[in-house]
Amino acid sequence: MTSRVGRVSRDTKETRVELEIDLDGTGSTEVATGVPFFDHMLDQLGRHGRFDLTVKTAGDVEIDAHHTVEDTGIALGTALAEAWGDRAGVERFGDATVPIDESLTRVAVDLSGRPYLVWDCEVPIQVIGTTFETSLVRHFFEAVVANSRITLHVHNLAGDNTHHVFESVFKSVAVALRRAVAVTGTGVPSTKGVLQ
Questions:
Q1: 119, 120, 123: which is closest to 132 by C-alpha?
Q2: Model confidence pLDDT, tens digit, residues 66-109
Q3: How far is CA 161 from CA 39, 126, 130, 164, in A?
Q4: DSSP-derived pairing of the beta strands 103-110 and 151-158
Q5: What pLDDT, in 10s, does the model give residues 154-164?
Q6: What confidence score (pLDDT) does residue 15 get?
Q7: What is the β-pairing status of strands 132-133 and 127-128?
Q8: Using CA atoms in the order 98, 137, 25, 115, what is the torsion angle rounded to 10 degrees?
Q9: Where are any strands of DSSP class E within the chain?
């Protein structure tokens, strides 16, 4: 099997992102974005997806975390698309339901080539830590979906603690992606013959 690694270097006036993901890794992560809560969530994504994930983002966090989170999402989506290429042999569909204490989130993913996000995860708009506004989680996944060209459904079923809710979201996405990218066949899993 060929290497399934995606690498992205993205440089704008607002951020500089260096990101690498190996779909066939062991869950080793090295994440530094300047936004501690976001680092923690990205670590969950790599660790529970069993992807080797390296993220180094330098952004204008003195303003807020928005550009850092968005541009990291763009880079991650782009790297995922590069890593799985034409998607030949992958399972294509994946789902997971993950609890974190009182929180429970169900996620389903389709490596469809058609970007679509269904987001059913309502939490109060607040700041976690010093710079991370809760609305950024949805915005992050919008960027990932648009650039990886996947369909992603996120449904939070229970949860009172915002940290726990988002941790269950990231872990569910990680496990669903791990299942979707598993190599279980040979051809492109589509009656069209392509996933674009």
A1: 123
A2: 999 999 999 999 999 999 888 888 999 999 999 999 999 999 99
A3: 18, 12, 17, 5
A4: antiparallel
A5: 999 999 999 99
A6: 96
A7: antiparallel
A8: 100
A9: 5-11, 15-22, 29-32, 52-59, 93-100, 103-110, 116-120, 127-128, 132-133, 151-158
Tokens (6 digits) for 101: 């204490």
Residue with tokens 């988002």: 166
Is-contact 188 194, C-beta < 8 A? yes
Fill in the DSSP letter of residue 53. E
Domains of the chain: 5-181 (3.30.230.40)
**Joined tokens for residue 9:** 């270097």
Residue keyed to tokens 């899993």? 189
- Do residues 131 and 35 lie in contact, with contact meaning Cβ atoms separated by under 8 Å? yes
CA distance 171 to 45: 6
